[in-house]
User: Which sequence fits this backbone?
């Protein structure tokens, strides 16, 4: 579970997103960061028994910096108002599919997949889905996955408006072949975040997603 002070810090940061305020409250931030890192380490330790590809990771290899890159943004707020961690083979900088936890009061979630991969990875994933749609469909309709996530996210920003080149409109997998990202998310309430069963809930979400992650990485890692 996370401390209520961690959520309070993020709520306060949203109201006072300035370097001056952050510097004044740096000790509070360091405490919140350590709290989140403790959760991440616990998830690695426990879920790593199920997915050994992440077992050797450390929290620092998974947690994203709180500083925002404002160089090309109209919003010059210097800090993110969330904490995030990516659990992938190779850590947060990996180009492989993996698991993700997003901590933001009122907007937290667990899940994962592969977000906006490069053109080569997209080609490989689409080919794998097309060639092995029976396997892919079984993963989608698996009771654990369906109960936890329902389906992959098919938001407009994640999908092409029409079928990709080389695929027909009537392909049974067309809705998934049109995707540019293959991700699934399940919400975490603020009550979940401070509940003693938080890590169990995250690990359960990851377990339901594991066959999908393995399918996606099988495609991406194909030579």
Assistant:
């Amino acid at each position: 579970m996370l401390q209520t002070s961690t959520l309070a810090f993020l709520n306060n940061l949203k109201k006072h997103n300035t370097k001056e305020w952050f510097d004044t409250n740096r000790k509070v931030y360091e405490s919140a960061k350590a709290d989140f890192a403790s959760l991440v380490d616990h998830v690695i330790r426990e879920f790593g028994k199920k997915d050994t590809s992440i077992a050797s990771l450390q929290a620092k290899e998974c947690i994203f910096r709180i500083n925002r890159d404002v160089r090309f943004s109209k919003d010059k707020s210097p800090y993110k108002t969330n904490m995030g961690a990516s659990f992938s083979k190779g850590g947060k900088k990996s180009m492989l599919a993996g698991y993700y936890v997003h901590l933001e009061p009122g907007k937290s979630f667990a899940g994962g997949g592969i977000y906006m991969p490069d053109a080569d990875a997209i080609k490989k994933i689409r080919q794998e889905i097309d060639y092995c749609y029976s396997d892919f469909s079984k993963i989608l309709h698996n009771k654990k996955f369906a109960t936890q996530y329902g389906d992959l996210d098919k938001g407009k920003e994640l999908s092409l408006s029409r079928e990709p080149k080389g695929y027909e409109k009537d392909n049974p997998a067309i809705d998934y072949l049109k995707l540019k990202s293959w991700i699934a998310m399940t919400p975490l309430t603020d009550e979940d975040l401070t509940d003693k069963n938080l890590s169990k809930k995250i690990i359960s979400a990851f377990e339901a997603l594991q066959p999908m992650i393995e399918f996606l990485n099988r495609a991406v890692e194909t030579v």
